[in-house]
Structure formats: C-alpha cells, structure tokens
Protein 1
Amino acid sequence: MGTILDGKAIAARLHDALTREVAALRGCPRLAILWFETPSSALYRKAQCRQAASLGIAITDASFPTDVEPDAVEARILEWNRDPKIHGMFVHQPMPAQINPQRISALIDPAKDIEGIHPQNSARRFFAKARIGSCTALAVMELIEATGMPLEGKDAVVVGHSEIVGRPVSMLLLDKLATTTICHIATTHLEQHVHRADVLVVAVGKPQLIKGAWIKPGAIVIDVGINVVGGRVVGDVEFEAARQRAAFISPVPGGVGPVTVMMVMKNTVEAYKLQQQGGAAA
Ligand code: NAD
C-alpha cells in the first residue's frame, strides 16, 4: 500500500515558514484576484482569501459575470498593472469563451505575473532566482520532494501538456535530470508510457483515465486532476487500485490543491520582494 502524500500537512508547513517571512517584511504584499462568477471559482477564491488573511497578505478582488465583455476584464488588469500597491495578479481559469486567455496573459505586467503566464515569463518558464511560475507545477514538485526520492535518472511521465500545468511541470522535472516524457490527447499507447513511470504526474481532467493496473510498482503518483462525479471531487487516477502498486500517491482532494494555494501566496511574496528591490525579473 502506497503512502498517501498529505497535501494539507505540506501546506501547513509551508504556511508556517511563509508566516514568518511575511511578518519580517517592512510592508504588506497585496494579491489581486480576478474571477468569474461560477460556483467552483467562488470556492477557490474563498480558499485563496482565507489563506491570504491568515498569512497577512492583502487581497484586492474583482468578480465578473460569465457574460462580461472582454474590454471590462482587460481594463481591470491594466488598472492593476498601474497600481503600485498591487504586487501579484491571479486570473481564475477557465475563462468564459468570449475571453481570450492568451490576450489576458499578455496584458499582465510580467513583474506581477505570479503564475508565469505572460509570454515573456512562460518562455523562460520560471522567472527570477526565486523561480516564480506555475503555482500548480511548483506544488507538484513540493509533493515529490516530500517523498525524499531523488529524481536524477528516473523516468518521469507527465500526462497533460497544458501551458499552466503539464508543460511547466515537465520543465521542472527536466531541471532535476529526470528523463521526462510528456503525453497528451494524441498519445498512442498511454498505458505503456504510464507503466514505465517511476514518477507519474497526471493533469488532464478526466476521472479514472489512469487505471491502477497501469502503475509501475513503487512509483510516485501525483494526481492533479479535479473532477466532480456524483457530487464528489475525484482526480484522474483510479486511486485505490493505484495505491496498491504505488510507493507514494497524492489524493484528490487534499493533495496538490492545498499546496497550490500556498504557492500562489509564496509567489506573491517573492514578487513583492523583487518589486521592493526595484528589480524586474532577473
Ligand atoms: P487543460 O484542459 O488545459 O489540459 C488538459 C490536458 O490533458 C491537455 O494537454 C490534453 O492534451 C490532455 N488530455 C486530454 N485527454 C487526454 C487523454 N485521453 N489522454 C492523455 N492526455 C489527454 O487542463 P489543465 O488546466 O492542465 O488542468 C488539468 C486538470 O488539472 C483539470 O482537472 C484541472 O481542474 C486540474 N487542475 C488542478 C489544479 C490544482 O491545483 N489541483 C490546478 C490547475 C488545474
């Protein structure tokens, strides 16, 4: 039976360290959250606001109905770019169909881009020495680090190639010298790729896509997927069956999610510090 990677416990440790860091700052970092009025976005915003409050990070937020005109969203981002009291910006996804995510990403001031989605930052993947970038990818790496297993020379397989999760997590695995394969919607023989993985990261959004029987015995399995099935939140991996074979596995909920929220806060603090130094991304 694999050990469950407890995202809440890892998030609590990060919370303690970040609380001390924020308390030592001279000013107050401020995170701006832009979200669209859907139940899942409202829940996520609530979690972000709760964590920010407990850390001493200020929040400015703007909510828009899902039929908002793109101009209104773009105007708000430009206003936040000009506001020196705002240090980080987080735009909730998915965005409504009439909003072009690439356009939004390109509008955000790169220095306030705590998710690494501005083209200038996403090309570099993670910017500045502090390595600001995809909060979810950083959370995945925290969970893997908690296993204590070195990544060098291991076979890592990432299922999903999105800009916000699959690609950045692949880059971080490569940085650790894992031999990294990226699978996606057009991948044939997904089972064979998964079966080779010493480290498997799944970020697709399809419940039960990854069968427990596919998991390599002793693997580390990180499930990023969030799906609602019959009123329950589940990931992309057949959890119980996969746990029989894995050495470590992250649950959904309670795995990647809580750590990602903490990474949003950590990146906001890092962006704040860079702006105080008067520095852009280095
Ligand atoms: P996305 O829709 O942008 O990308 C999905 C990816 O899955 C694509 O790369 C696609 O090629 C791939 N894919 C689709 N069907 C596939 C198949 N049958 N086989 C292999 N690959 C397939 O999604 P995203 O934004 O990357 O999010 C992925 C999942 O992670 C979603 O469930 C999302 O809710 C969740 N998520 C969780 C967190 C968190 O903090 N826990 C953060 C972001 C996203």
Note: The chain has two domains: 14-124+258-276, 135-256.
Protein 2
Amino acid sequence: MSVMRVLVSGGAGYIGSHTVVRLVAAGHDVVIVDSFANAKPTVVGRLEALTGTDLPVHAFDLTDKDKTERLFATEKFDAVIHFAGLKAVGESVQIPLDYYVNNLESTFSLLRAMRRHGCDLLVFSSSATVYGEVAPVPYQEDYEPLSASSPYGRTKVMIEHVLRDVAGIDERLKVAMLRYFNPVGAHPSGTIGEDPQGIPNNLMPFVAQVAVGRRERLQVFGGDYPTADGTAERDYIHVEDLAAGHVAALQWIASHDRKVSTWNLGGGRGTSVLQVVAAFEKASGMPVPYDIVGRREGDLAAYWADPSRANAELGWRAERTIDEMCADTWRWQRANPDGYPD
Ligand code: UFG
C-alpha cells in the first residue's frame, strides 16, 4: 500500500476527526480543511496529541473557489476525503437554500481544483438517507431510484449523481461513495467525540447528555412502530469502525480501476431506541429517564444495511457492539460534559 497525501475536508468534525487519526495511523500524510462553522478549533490540538504529529489546518469554506484553487496550487494531494457539509435534517427544511448552496458548491469547487491539479481520488460522505422511503430492508447499494425526504438528504442524492457523471467523463478520477448508517460512539481515549451545538438532534448524543445530567429526560419519538418493542430501529455504527471503512475504501480505489464504487457502511442489524437507552444505562451506570411521545415527522420505522459488498470487497466489517458504542460515548461525555472547550 502506498502512502498518500490526503486532504480531509471537514477534518475537525465528528467523523472527519476520527478518520484523521486512522489515516495517520495507517501512515498517510494528512492535511485538514475546515470552515469551523460546526467544529471547535480545540479539536486540532486533541488530534495532534492522539496522532503525535503536526496537522496542517486550513480554515476556510470550500464554497470559496479561489481559496480552494490556491490550496491545490500550493500543495499536492493524492486524494480527498470530503466530509465537509451541513448535516442537520430538520434545519435543512428551514434553510434549504443554504444546504443546497453549501453542500453542492463545496463539492463543485473541490472537483474543479482536483481536476486542474491532477488529484484523482475522492471519497465522499453519503448517507443511508439516499435509499428514500420505500427501499426494501436491508438496503443494498444497487437499489434505484435514489431519493430522499429532506433537503439535506437531497443534497446527498444530487452529489452522488454529480460524482457519477463527472467520473464518467474524467479519465482519471475514481470515486468512492460511502453510505453511512447511524454513526455513534467516540475514540476510546475519550478525548475526541461528537460535539453537537445546542440541543442534539440525534439520539445518542441526547441520551448521553441526559445521563450526564445536562438534560432532564429523553423524548422517545414514537412507541407504536411495527417493531418488537414499538420504537424505531436503526443500524448504529461505531465511528471508529466508520473511520476504518474510509481508510479501507481509499486504499481500495487507489489500487483498483473501477471508476465509481458505492459501499454501505453499517453493521447489518437494527437496534431500537429502547435498546439504545438500556445499553446506555448499563454502560454508564446512570439512569436515562424518558417519555414516549409522538413520532417525529419524516422518520422511518426500521432500516439497516446489507454491508456484504463492503465486507467482501474491502475486507471491512463493523465490529464494535452497541455496548462498546455506548461505553465509548459515555467516556467522551463524562470527560467533556460541555463538549470541546472554546
Ligand atoms: N430519536 C428519539 N429521540 C431523540 C432523537 C432521536 O426517539 O431525541 C429516535 C428517532 O426518532 C429515530 C432514532 O432515535 O428513530 C435515531 O434518530 P437519529 O436522529 O439519531 O438518527 P436518524 O436515523 O433520524 O438520522 C439519520 C442520520 C441522518 C440521516 C437520517 C435519515 O443522522 O444524517 O438518518 O436517513 F439523514
């Protein structure tokens, strides 16, 4: 395996930061670009401590074409892992244009700079949300047509189409689209983790904040789904497994000819909201009081990945259990009850 110089966009964010640690451990040379719109600069020092290296960081928004062009003109990258983007489903309904402009333009700006400067490998953060509302479970990569029920999700669908079209005419570009299921957990050191701003939208950070005493009770959205305990089921994947999946995908596309690869990164099984609550109480030893309330608009009852393509081609597997996901989330939450310092 050859060593690569990798630009990680959104490298200060939740999944990006964990992937940076794995890339360095695999011997790659990492450069971060992040707007810090949704990440704290203090994460960088934590990453340098974890990796034992200096990490070059460029603080700008990739929608700025000139700055992106200048970065590629001054540094030579073999690959880009593109995490940067807006990601809150509910917010995307309120400010759709911001989502379309930010997520699409940052990708366009990267693609132009990559083409101009001979950078031919791109790993893109897609989402299980592209399977839409009627795909059969477990979700398989070949399912079509892609669709999504929020502006956020539609940016992922659109970018997948853009990447397919561009890779189709660019002789050298190779693309990996990674469809994430529900990333949770934190680095086992407890020094980096998910740091949502304001009230968490997602289940695991909300549960962790209840356990640590920052919020009083969890609202469980829907208790009448057609599932074993009536609460919705998702395919939770430890962020460390997810990060390892990025390194495996990058190395795979570097050494194979296929132009476009799509891989589900999930564990292949569903876990209900109440099972997450029970696992978290066990891992933390803290109570997580909850109320079952109405369903959240747009939520599906149950879905999970068919991860067999990634298992077979990448030799990758989501190994960590829901108990480990909760234990690692708890270690991070307890050590950093208010997230990263300013
Ligand atoms: N949930 C609660 N209470 C909460 C938060 C969540 O009961 O306070 C429930 C949700 O209703 C859902 C489950 O916990 O059943 C998981 O919810 P998350 O918000 O953690 O995750 P989602 O599955 O809704 O969202 C994920 C990704 C998005 C993606 C979306 C749609 O985070 O990026 O799936 O596929 F767009």
Note: The longest strand covers residues 121-127.
Protein 3
Amino acid sequence: MNDNLHTLRCFGCGARISGGEARPDFRCADCGDLFEVEYSGWADRKDHNRPNAGALRWLWRERRCSGELLDRSGVWRFRELLPILENFGNAVTLQEGNTPLYALPRSAKALGLDQLYAKHQGMNPTGSFKDTGMTAALSVARERGFEWVACASTGNTSAAMAAYAARAGMRSLVLIPEGKIAWGKLSQAMDYGAVTCQLNTDFDGCLRVLLEIVREAPIYLLNSMNPYRLEGQKTPALEIAEAFDWNVPDHLIVPGGNLANSSALGKGFKEMKELGLVSRVPKISVIQAEGANPLARYMSARGEKEFKPVEANTRATAIRIGNPASWKKAARVVEETGGSCLDVTEAEIAIAKADLGAEGLGCEPASAVTLAGLKKLRAQGAVGDGETVVLLLTGHTLKDADYTIDFHRGTLLQPDEAAGREVEIAKLRRNAISVEATPAAVLSAMKDIPA
Ligand code: F0G
C-alpha cells in the first residue's frame, strides 16, 4: 500500500521537493527557508486526489467507535488529511489526540462572553500538544529507517520525542537549556530513556548546536522545523471543527514560542476550508510572554522593521524562545485569518493560570497566556460579546508544579511585577496552611478562608 501523496514546498521561494530530498536541517537548499507539506489537487474540485468532505466526516465519526489502534488515535483517525507515510502500518502511536473541549463558564462570565471553551492539549499521553506532532514526524523517521532521533527543547518536545522513540524501539537525543526547563519535563525524558544533554545555553543555543550535529551524523531532527510535526499538530483544528459540528469558532487563541503550533492549526483550518469541510476559518491569535515576544514586536511594527530575535526571559519556560523558527508561517496565519499577536506580562500569565485553576482546569503557565491574551483582546474590542472563543491549552498543570506552588505561596512574582494587581492576586491565592491536628482547628481554618 502506498499512502504517501505529499510533496514539500518551500515557504520562502516556493521550490518543491520530494520528502526524501529534504536536507537534515529541513531548510531549503535555495533560500534557506522552511518547508511545508503540500498535497496536490486538494484545492481543485475536479481533481481525483481531492478527498470528499461528506464521506470524510462520516468515516472519521465511525472511527471513534473502532477498536483499531490507528483509529483510536486522534491524529491517525484523520489520516486522509495527513498522507505522509508510505504505509500507515508504520505509524507509532500512543493514542494521542481526542482531547477534551471544556466550557469555561466562570471566565466567560467575567469577560462578558457567552461561549468560551478550552481545548486541552495537555490531556495527551505525555501531557502536552507535542504528542500530536511527534506521532506524525517520528513515524516518518521510523519509516525512513533512522535509528536516532533528536530535538532541542524547552521540555515538552523532548518528553514527547523520548516517549514515542521508546515505543518505536529507537534511540533519542535531547538537548535542553540547563536549569531552564520544568522538572516534570526533564523527568519524562529520563524516564523514557533519552540521552539527555543539558547545555549551558538557552533554547536557541541548543537548537544551533543540534543543527550542526544533524548535518554531520545520521540523526533525524524532530524539532518543529521538521514539517511533518505540523501535520500532526494540525489535527486539533479538525477536532475543534468536528466538536462544533463542522462550524468553526470565531476565535482561536494559541500560545506562541517557536511558533509552529499556531502555524499548524492555521494550516489545518485552511485545508479544511479548501476541501469544503468548513465554510470559514477562525481568527487565529498568537499570544507571547512579554519577555519572549519577537513576533508580537514585529507584528505591532508591521512594515517598518525586520523581524528581530530577542534575548528571551519568562517564567513560562516552555515559551522562553527568542528566535522562533516558524515566525513567517505564524505571521501569515495571523494576517490571513484576521487575528492578532500580543504579549502579556508575568503577572497577567500567573493570574490567568490561577483563573483557569479556579475553574478546575490546570495548565502550564505557557498555556495560560491564552486567557491573559483574551482579556486584552476583549478590552481592545477585538472579540465581540456574541462571539465564540476557543483557547488552546498546550500543557498539563503537573508539568510545572513548582510554578503553581510558588504562586499560591506568594513567592512567584516580585513586588514590581505584581504592582497594581495585589488584590486580584490575593483573591486567587490558596496557600496550604499548617493546622493543628484536631477537628476544631481544621473547622476553624475553613471559616477563615473566603470562598
Ligand atoms: N505551550 C507549551 C506548553 C509548549 O511546550 C510550547 C513549546 C508552546 C506552548 C509553544 O508552541 O513553539 O509551537 O509556538 N514548546 C517547545 C518545546 C518549544 O521544546 O517543548 P510553539
């Protein structure tokens, strides 16, 4: 069976190559830009390769009741939209995807919105959205006969890669910035047996070193410059459309780090529209941390300046990235869909994370930028009262428990960071208290804490 129907198209100069011709760093030999996976004929209604929208919707729903391993994956369930393997039998899956879409009634009320949801990608097998991309790209690596895979990471990519490599019986190499990733993520890379190297540099530095390594040794690069990662990461867009009965929300709000996820989701919606699965696409907005905001800076100064990397610094370590590889793709998604790109402060991130926690939904700090960004978009009038909004939560709360504990203990933010927000923060904080081991003391402690 040959399921493979794709070519790679350079995002910069438009050059087309076959999958096997890609260089180890996945950069275009002519212009140095990144590739994206293209499926010919999808935009042409008469082309025989064009999948049929009605049949697909039916098939994908049927697969939800199937016991087949591939059908149980929320990525490979949609495999007609990612024909990237010679044989789907080579797919390495941990039954990723099919993540929950939760209503957020408290935040919706506070923001004066009727319809606010969180698509929780932290509910994936390794606790982040990276699993959806990893199942796709690591399957390609396996099919092409690689023994080693590698990534530079702020923690989640490495956790996902290490797990999928272990499942496939492959070796994995992780480069992480020493002391700058959350412990939960580091523990996962160790647990899944990766060779984990902590380098005395930042994420961008780790990536630079890795690119030199993959040019020299037969190691398959699994950073998001690898276009197959994005094919897996576009599938939450399909799940969202399916959950809204093939209508789409008005807004989708996504955190921005290396900027692959926003690019992938934009691609997913664009392809669904081309294929007639949906009639429009949501406005896709990207939110960055103020200390790691190169796209937000670039897009606010549109037309005036070159894109400039920044020295990144934020406690939302997952998105502590100053030189994002996929910035051009993400900028195009934001522009084409009519979304925005903003940044939010450390205090705004911490408050938004606690707001979500108070709704029973934990997430990583990097995920909480979405709610912080929505508050700003609402204040700017960019999101209307009657509009439907989906926040993409990217990581599980237990990835970075230290952050949560520091917030509730009151040790996370410096006084200048929290200035002006003290009352709001005090209302959200729920520090653990030491109480005498008697019922009377516990009952009295309960009375002292406001609801
Ligand atoms: N949220 C979380 C929890 C992440 O781990 C990342 C990226 C992002 C958001 C940003 O996504 O890079 O596609 O814009 N983490 C990467 C990693 C870089 O190495 O785990 P992006």
Note: The radius of gyration is 22 Å.
